[in-house]
Write a structure and sequence with these properties.
Structural class: alpha/beta
Distance between the termini: 35 Å
Strand content: 15-25%
Number of domains: 2
Order of helices and strands: EHEHHEEHEEEHHH
Strand order of the largest sheet: 3-2-4-5
CATH topology of the largest domain: Rossmann fold
CATH architecture of the largest domain: 3-Layer(aba) Sandwich
CATH superfamily of the largest domain: Response regulator
Largest sheet: 4 strands, parallel
Helix content: 25-40%
Number of helices: 7
CATH class of the largest domain: Alpha Beta
Shape: globular
Radius of gyration: 22 Å
């Protein structure tokens, strides 16, 4: 799940400076689940902006509208008529949602109300942990289901550094060393031989936009490219 957090109100106001009518678009997906951009959060932010702008005697109007998911274009269909009367859009979706809105409505400035933090899971009520860096080269089968890319402060892929103390990371003594955890997990599973297997240097793909087309749809989209 994508985890996001709301930007400071003053930062949002600074982005919206000069725009008098703003549509605040929420998302019923990930940012709703992590209590950052669902219906309630959209309403709360609209109220905060309205009160703050009124206090500063700034002419401003904002309304909220939450779609099922901002990261899927067909869910944006219902916005097509609504956005026409607004000067700008504010997105309470993740970074992907912001970009989809901007692509859908290129004549409207689109601003992010949230910071997209990481991909993670819900450990408890209001407690989320990063577990995946979305690297596109998953090694979890070799590391006992513990991701060194996400859980090692140095992102080491072939064993620990020389700094762990009492099983904890030298970068943060409150954080367990990922590689010691991997060792203990593999040992308990009788798979310690995995530790000796060297991961080759990763071919990072961050330089280009990531795209994934499911195998069963490749013929469909290949025809469009011709």
């Amino acid at each position: 799940m994508i985890i996001a957090s709301k930007k400071q109100l003053e930062d949002i106001k600074e982005m919206l400076k000069g725009y008098k009518r703003v549509l605040n678009v929420g998302c019923g997906g990930c940012t709703s689940v992590c209590l950052a951009g669902g219906i309630k959060e959209v309403e709360d932010l609209c109220t905060q902006l309205t009160v703050s702008m009124k206090t500063e005697h700034i002419s401003f109007e904002t309304n909220g509208y939450t779609v099922e998911r901002q990261c899927e274009p067909h869910f944006l269909d219902e916005l097509d008529e609504i956005v026409k009367k607004y000067d700008a859009l504010l997105s309470m979706g993740c970074g992907v949602g912001v970009q989809f809105l901007a692509e859908r409505y290129p004549d409207k400035p689109v601003f992010p109300a949230l910071d997209t933090v990481f991909s993670g899971g819900n450990k408890d009520i209001g407690w989320y942990e990063e577990r995946c860096k979305n690297c596109g080269d998953c090694v979890l089968g070799m590391t006992g289901g513990i991701c060194p890319n996400a859980m090692c402060a140095k992102m080491l892929m072939n064993g620990p550094c020389g700094g762990p103390q009492d099983g904890h990371c030298e970068v943060d003594s409150e954080v367990p060393c990922a590689w010691i955890q991997i060792y203990e997990r593999l040992k308990a599973q009788g798979r310690l031989d995995n530790i000796l297997k060297v991961s080759p240097a990763r071919e990072w793909k961050d330089q280009v936009q990531g795209t994934l087309v499911l195998e069963q749809y490749r013929d469909r989209y290949a025809k469009k490219d011709k």
